[in-house]
Amino acid sequence: MRTQPSAAPAATKLAAPHIVTELPGPRARALIERDGRVTSPSLTRAYPLAAESGSGLVVTDVDGNRFLDFAAGIAVASTGHAHPRVAEAIAGQASQLIHIAATDFYEPRYVEFSEKLASIAPFAEPARVFLTNSGTEAVEGAIKLARYHTGRPGIIAFEGAFHGRTLGALSLTNSKIRQRAGFGPLLPMVEHAPYPRVRSWREQTGGDGSDELEVLRRTILGRILAPADVAAIVVEPVQGEGGYFPAPRAFLQGLREICDEHGILLVADEIQSGIGRTGRWWVMEHAGVEPDIVLTAKGVASGMPIGAFIARDSVWTWKPGAHGSTFAGNPVCAAAGLATLKVIEDDGLLQNATRMGERLKAGLEQVASDRAEVWDIRGLGLMIGIEFHTHQQAAAVELAAFERGLLVLECGESTLRFCPPLIVDGEAVDRAVAIFAEALAAGLAGGVSRET
Ligand code: PLP
User: Fold this and answer.
1) What distances in angstroms separate CA 447 from CA 375, 376, 393, 404, 442, one per listed residue?
2) In 3-state terms, what secondary structure has residue 432?
3) Is 333's C-beta closer than 6 angstroms to any atom of ligand 1?
4) Is 152 exposed, middle or buried (0-12, 13-18, 19+ CB in 10 A)?
5) What are phi and psi of 111, to 5 degrees?
6) Helix axes 426-445, 391-403, angle to 10 degrees
7) Is the CB of 134 inside a 6 Å radius of any atom of ligand 1?
8) Span 111-121, mean pLDDT?
9) For residue range 42-80, what is the model confidence (pLDDT) as tens digits?
10) What's the CA-to-centroid distance between 39 and ligand 1, angstroms?
11) Could you tell me if the CB of 412 is within 6 A of ligand 1?
């Protein structure tokens, strides 16, 4: 792997955000009206972005307004929008073979992408890979594999977790009640343990996770779910939708110890945090903790729908026919994944994520230092959350940022997340911080109070 990032391709160079119409503009308004007539009412658009195209760090809407994208399609466009090498891989593969069904037939891209993912898996034991179509399917697969391998039904997840929307994954999801309401009964024998919410910018609260480990040991495993009934503990090492909370290293180490003690599998859901976003391939590497299964999706193929559950060789005790999928590991998606991982390696994007993350965090800390409405700023690499005291404050600043040409996205109860493409450069970071400073002033000017 090269240590110095090469020059970003021309398409990734920053074209300044440029707002040329009122927002939403006339074409966006027309599209939003049509969308409202035919799409599922469950979709939750935070602000009226109607995207037409994307190049590098910039998204252009249907009216020609340009936005600097620090949301990356929910932490997905890891190499930026339409990275030339990824786009080329997709186009080349599409004209060669779009589909064959890897559950039933052999196919080179499927093998090559699996080999590549196995080679970066965060454990010493050799890895095997099952490719999926999405994050939630990676979670489903991990639940099934853990149950099959251990012969146990129970799963422990965490308060505030987000693992997806299909019924198994939804049983673990715990971040917002509207995501669960009306869908029960969900999986039985799933318990949610407390997750450490560490705030260390303005205040030092949250500790090292030992209190939460104690509740897990004493209350959950001591009174509710017998350890011998638990197949897996599923954890996001940086909680994503729940509010961008990195787990303390000691907490992840404690989970590993509990798993080892009781023969429970440790599953790291790195669907949002993995593939270089925090400056390493996986957050678990920062903590020096090896999971038994790691999950990926989102940024792994720059936006093509593919994910994976990757487990130690010894965990795959299931037999032919136990699990499969028609589309999953589709050659076009696998080609995009291979190109994405190669761009990340060739262009030194892990190192870039660390460097740019530090620059972004320092910039945000500076512009927020005299704003009492900002409660905390935290994160690892390019996974940074800025937490307000209220949802209203976060939403007002998010909208003000959009109106000034910067895309960020709320998570948790009142946090704005910054998760730009890993190709982001210093110029773009500084520009985003400057726009954010204006958005802070404008969004909070209406006196959105702490109490609202
Ligand atoms: N797990 C985590 C940590 C996520 O952040 C998400 C999506 O936000 C998922 C699982 C579900 O992924 P998908 O939306 O691709 O089903």
Assistant:
1) 16, 19, 9, 19, 10
2) helix
3) no
4) buried
5) -70, -45
6) 120
7) yes
8) 98
9) 999 999 999 999 999 999 999 999 999 999 999 999 999
10) 21
11) no
pLDDT at 14 over 60: no
Mutate to test the pocket of ligand 1, among 139, 166, 272 (most ligand atoms within 8 A of CB): 272
Q: Edge-to-edge, what's the strand order for the sheet holding 293-296?
A: 127-132, 307-312, 293-296, 265-269, 230-235, 154-158, 190-193
Q: Provide the token pair at 312.
A: 């130690």
Domain extents in the chain: 88-346
Please give the backbone phi and psi of residue 161, each rounded to the nearest 5 degrees, phi first.
Answer: -70, 150
Burial of 184 (0-12, 13-18, 19+ CB in 10 A): exposed
Tokens of 267: 């599953």
Residue to substitute in 298, 409, 417 for testing ligand 1 pocket (most ligand atoms within 8 angstroms of CB)? 298
Dihedral sign, Cα of residue 415, residue 286, residue 236, residue 194: negative
Q: Whose CA is nearest to atom 5 of ligand 1?
A: 272
User: Could you tell me if 417 and 357 are in contact, meaning their C-beta atoms sit under 8 angstroms apart?
Assistant: no
Q: For residue 404, what are its two tokens? A: 């000034």
CB-based contacts of 207: which residues, under 8 Å, 6+ apart? 196, 198, 248
| pTM score | 0.96
Top CATH class of 88-346 equals alpha beta
List helix spans (H) across 269-422: 283-287, 331-346, 349-368, 391-403
Give the position of tokens 């307004």.
65
